[in-house]
Amino acid sequence: MHPRTLVRSLVVPAGPDTVWALVGGFATLDDWHPHVPPATVEDGADPDAPGAVRRFTLDGTVVARERLLDRDPAARSYRYTLLDPLALPVEEYVATLAVAPHPDGAELRWSAAYRAPDALVPRVEAAFGDGVYATGLDAVRERLAPGFTSSR
Question: What angle do CA 74, 104, 135 make, to 5 degrees?
Fold first, then answer.
């Protein structure tokens, strides 16, 4: 297994605080991402405190569990790790969702570091990079700036 990185980002013509208000809650991903099933926080934990585990359920079946590693509202970012193997057997997967000021509004960046064999990388890029990250970023842009296009 080799170390890998995965990054998707885009610029939204909205202020960083506005973007963070939409995406900054660890337990609210399904509020703005069109393809993520509803999430619940396990054991009644504070959803924005490190250690909280969000569980995604589809038709009564848990499809993913993720643990919040840290959340920094001042820096407008949070990091989390996958707890259970998904359809793709990646290891040491740690993702970051961050919002930064940009001359045209805010840059929304979703990235991950993980370990996977070479043959698996195209599937990870397609599933996580395009299917989850890019789709979610596009949904944020469309929600906050309908009709605006930018390059990734």
Answer: 75
